Amino acid sequence: MEKLVILGAGYGGMRVMQRLLPNDLPDNVEITLIDRLPYHCLKTEYYALAAGTAADHHLRVAFPEDSRLKVKYANIESIELEDKAIVLDSGESVPFDKLIIGLGCEDKYHGVPGAKENAYSIQTMEATRKTYEALNNVRPEGVVSIVGGGLSGVELASELRESRPDLTIKLFDRGEMILSSFPKKLSTYVQGWFEDHGVEIVNKSNITKVEPNAIYNHDERVDVDAVIWTAGIQPVKVVRELDIAKDSSGRVELTPQHFIPGNEDVFVVGDCASLPHAPSAQLAEGQAEQIVQILKAQWNNEALPAELPKIKLKGVLGSLGKKHGFGLMGERTLLGRVPRVLKSGVLWMYKYHSG
């Protein structure tokens, strides 16, 4: 049997399995999925779990069920491309004929002293559970600082405002306005929402140090009860350690067919892949669809397409608590209740109909 090994059950790995099983996987191919957890996690909703407004089990989606899918629960120690094997933390070696690397990302701390040790994270389910516990245990009328005014930081701050109205919430962002990569109309709306709801936005910030109960902005101390870091991501360590070509962000450079140059058997999907768009669940799923197309061509001994269509992204939707939101659909900016309702609908469709 030919062995297709998928590393990580994120949005990309999950979409590959959904498209190949049950009908499009050749009879002589079996899939081995390696992941730490027995379910796919809705990472885009980790902010709600951390804030305490979504239950843990609401963020889980079951893996496809098929006799040709084997699941190994483990951490990955290394990826041995030349030996075509995955080494697990138990010492076990898992061979592969074809490999899809979809291990996602981790926080990037930009060399800020104490940030890794003293700030909480929402990058993994395990880390998010710890963040939820920490936020839940913050003293009444305590102070929580969130570093990073991108989508994750904005959604976490707004959800935490609803969950813990007693808290003082400070959102630190390097830009002149949060969500600076979005149209000014959208950024202005979101910043105004925070001002109306008592969340302090600290623009033009520069976090220089993080301590257990303090954060330093331009070297000025701010006392806090908890710090959550949402200020940048990078590929996981096991991918950063691979001796292959990467871009300036450490993401793996790929051919137009999504495999490593010179190695048609190793694909990279999602946050670890160097692509012309910012990492997102949508992008990982679009990339996975094309990887399945290439796999089928390879298994059928067909010529591979020299180019693939550009992955079309439908837009971005973000929440401001449970009643308000924002979105960007092409050139159209959406503000208020409509984008929040749309986001809830998209999430429902994904959980119950994406397969």
TrEMBL record:
UniProt GO molecular function: oxidoreductase activity
Group of enzyme by EC? oxidoreductase
Name all FAD/NAD(P)-binding domain ranges: 3-282
Q: What is its EC number?
A: 1.6.5.-
Kindly give the InterPro entries that the UniProt entry links to this protein: FAD/NAD-bd_sf (IPR036188), FAD/NAD-binding_dom (IPR023753), NADH-Q_oxidoreductase (IPR051169)
Q: Give the record's keywords alphabetically.
A: FAD, Flavoprotein, Oxidoreductase
> Needs which cofactor?
FAD
Q: Which family does the UniProt entry place this protein in?
A: Belongs to the NADH dehydrogenase family.
Protein's recorded name: NAD(P)/FAD-dependent oxidoreductase
- Organism this protein belongs to: Alkalicoccobacillus gibsonii
